[in-house]
Amino acid sequence: MDNERGxxxxxxxxxxxxxxxxxxxxxxxxxxxxxxxxxxxxPWILMYHSVAVEQxxxxxxxxxxxxxxxxxGWLYRSGRRGVSVRELMRAHALGRxxxxxxxxxxxxxxxIARYAVPTLQAYGFTATAYVVADLLGRDNGWDxxxxxxxxxxxxxxxxxxxxxxxxxxxxxxxxxxxxxxxxALAVQARxxxxxxxxxxxxxxxxxxxxxxxxxxxxxxxxxxxGYDHACAIAHSPLTGRFAxxxxxxxxxxxxxxxxxxxxxxxxxxxxxxxxxxxREPRP
Length: 283
Fold this sequence. Notes:
With 283 residues, the chain is an alpha/beta fold. The protein has seven helices and ten strands. This is Polysaccharide deacetylase family protein.
C-alpha cells in the first residue's frame, strides 16, 4: 500500500454509546458523533510532498519537476481541475466536485514555491500547503534518513496564500498525534492554528495529521479546535470530514497509475461507506 514514509498508523475508533433517548432522533454511530462527509463518496485528494531533483529519496517523497508537470497536464487533459481542499469541500457539499481533485503538499517544503506554483498557475490550478507552524524557514529534521530540505519561510507562506493557495496546519514540530495527552493535543491543534493565522492574516480551517497518523482523540482535538476539515491518508473507521483519505503520489506515477489509484480510492471509499452504513441505527 502506498503511504507516507511506509507507515500509516491504524486509526482507533469507538465511543461507548449512551442509552438511546426515545424523545430524540437516533444519533449517528460514526466515531466523531457526526455523519461522514456529505455526499455519496469522499472527494479525490492527491498527496504530494516535495517537487525537486534529488539524488537520494529514501522516503519517496520527491517528485521531479518534469514528472510533476506530466501529472498536472494529465489532470488538465482529462477534464479535471486541481483545487485546494477548502474549495473542494465547499464544492463537495453542493454536489459540484465531480471534475475537481484536491491537491495537497505536506510538510511545507520550499521547493514547491519554485516548481509547483508555476506549473499549477499555468493551468489555473490551486492547492493546499500543510505547513509545520513552528518550523517555518528551518528544515525537515524529523526525516533522519532523508536529505535535508529547506522549509517555506513566513514570507513564502504568505506569498502562497496571496497566490490563492490554502494554508493549512501540519501541527507543531511534525509530531505524530496518537498517544499524546489531551493537553498536548489541544496545543498541537490550537497553537499551530494561531501561529499560522497570524502569519497569513486570515483564517486557517484545514489540518493535516503528521505522518497521516490519526486516532479518535486526535480527530476530536482537531474538530474542537475549530477546524473545518482534516486530512489523513488511509481509509479507516474515522473516514469523514476530519479524517479525509488521500492518494499518495510519487515520481513513478504516470497517467496509468493515477487512473488506477483513482479507481482504488473509489473502491475503498465504497467499502468504507458500506461499513459506516452498517453501523448507522435504523429509524
